[in-house]
Design goal:
alpha/beta; Rossmann fold; 8-stranded mixed sheet; 18 helices; binds uridine-5'-diphosphate-glucuronic acid
């Protein structure tokens, strides 16, 4: 099929490459000439494992191109809108300006009979509103909502092998959009990926409900971590034990510094804002607690760091921060818990030295006044305390004996509960963690 993808960020670049690899003819369009130039060269403008290979593979077929020229979408039978919906600067609500602009631009160019497919995460009711606009301004062009569940760091695999496909379609003409999407995803459907067809509102809600559930699961275990801290328990053992119950499940019960990134935090806030507009605020008011448990973990990390210094003031202490990305295998620092903690420590006059295998350039852009180094070895040099804040494999594999030779005092705070306390203590370290002794 001839496909256009509007917006070539994390979602769009992966989606465009995956669609081309699956045999479709794809044009990716973005307003950012730098991003487009990189993609045209076969470079990824961000770090995503497997994407360079996928881009090369798809590029070699001659079926994938990128452009800033919106007119290139005119030939496509399906248009995927993959632009961002960030949190508004002055409220919890999502900013849907980019979605609206993308729909206007596509609507003006889309051929009669083509389908515009929204993939962006939007407040419920957006698709119905956009469908009305399309009906008025681009009659004969159909709309579907097809939320995306990919995780950064696993985006390629999640796109090629999704858990499920969700189609939100209009009651009266939904069969057309469903048939077109079935053709797009024929490869996945042949692999028995479940596909669930529903109305627009449910499809929009599926996405925010899924992210809200995941955020709630993380904050639940972090609330248990708070209790373990005061009662003398161990949250990792607690998670292992409750996670054995298949109704609960162990995944997303990793207690620690909590969630960040461009999705979970802003999605739960946008959900609260939208629920309030719909006079259904109480239905999701628990998400306020989910958000505050999550943010409390960052404060707690700062307190633990101050506490581990054994009476020495935080001001002037040299603190090594391992990790700046919001999670491993990503260079994304949006709402990164690690970077937030580093910022808070620096604001309290600690000498913070940050490292990350991939996210240093983005972190430096976000906080240019903080100090960054390339390697963990450099970061821990002369440190009064080491903080493990993003669980990259190389930090999990740190050797406590070798690291002890580099620091000023062997003190480590494990913000992600990924180190073995016994091993570190046996090597002479003071070991502290969130939610366990
Ligand atoms: C999330 C969802 O998992 C995806 O399904 C969704 O498509 C995506 O948002 C989106 O809306 O686009 P992502 O933000 O890439 O994906 O990252 P996650 O793997 O969900 O992790 C989010 C945060 O939770 C990270 O900061 C991670 O460190 C933290 N986390 C995760 C924990 O603190 N504990 C856990 O047990 C799991």
């Amino acid at each position: 099929m001839r496909i256009s993808v509007i917006g070539c960020g994390y979602l769009g670049a992966v989606h465009a490459s995956a669609m081309a690899a699956l045999g479709h003819d794809v044009v990716g369009v973005d307003v950012d000439p730098v991003k487009v130039a990189a993609l045209q060269r076969g470079d990824t403008p961000f770090f995503e494992p497997g994407l360079p290979e996928l881009l090369t593979e798809a590029g070699a077929t001659g079926r994938l191109r990128f452009t800033t020229d919106m007119d290139a979408v005119a030939e496509a039978q399906v248009h995927f809108v993959c632009v961002g919906t960030p949190q508004q600067a002055d409220s919890y609500a999502a900013d849907v300006t980019y979605v609206d602009e993308a729909f206007r631009a596509v609507g003006r160019r889309a051929a009669v009979g083509s389908v515009v497919v929204g993939k962006s995460t939007v407040p419920v009711g957006t698709a119905a509103r956009l469908a009305e606009t399309l009906a008025r301004e681009a009659p004969g062009v159909h709309l579907a909502w097809n939320p995306e569940f990919l995780r950064e760091g696993h985006a390629v695999d999640d796109t090629l092998h999704p858990d499920r496909l969700v189609y939100g379609v209009d009651g009266s003409e939904g069969d057309i959009a469903t048939a077109v999407l079935d053709e797009v995803y024929a490869g996945q459907l042949a692999d028995d990926v479940p596909r669930i067809v529903m109305d627009y509102a449910t499809a929009e809600l599926v996405k925010v409900a899924a992210n809200s559930f995941l955020a709630t699961k993380i904050s639940f275990i972090n609330a248990m971590a708070e209790l373990c801290e005061v009662a003398g328990g161990d949250v990792t053992l607690l998670a292992d034990a409750i996670g054995r119950d298949p109704r609960i499940g162990r995944r997303f019960l990793d207690a620690g510094l909590g969630f960040g990134g461009g999705c979970l935090p802003k999605d739960i806030r946008a959900f609260m804002a939208r629920a309030a507009e719909l006079h259904a605020e109480p239905a999701v008011s628990f998400l306020r607690e989910v958000d505050s448990i999550n943010l409390r973990r960052r404060e707690r990390m700062v307190d633990l760091t101050a506490g581990v210094l054994d009476g020495r003031p935080l001001a002037g202490a040299r603190i090594a921060v391992l990790g700046a990305a919001f999670k491993p295998n990503s260079d994304d620092v949006r709402d990164s818990p690690a970077l937030d903690v580093a910022r808070k420590l620096a604001d309290r006059s600690a000498h913070v030295v940050i490292t990350d295998p991939q996210a240093v350039p983005n972190a430096r852009r976000r906080f240019p006044d903080l100090r960054y180094v390339q390697t963990a070895e450099e970061a821990v040099q002369g440190a009064d305390a080491v903080l493990l804040l993003t669980e990259w494999a190389e930090y999990r594999a740190l050797d406590p004996d070798k690291t002890a030779l580099l620091v000023a005092s062997p003190r480590i705070v494990d913000g992600r509960n990924v180190l073995d306390p016994q091993v570190w203590r046996a090597a002479g370290w003071v070991y502290r963690a969130l939610g366990r002794r």
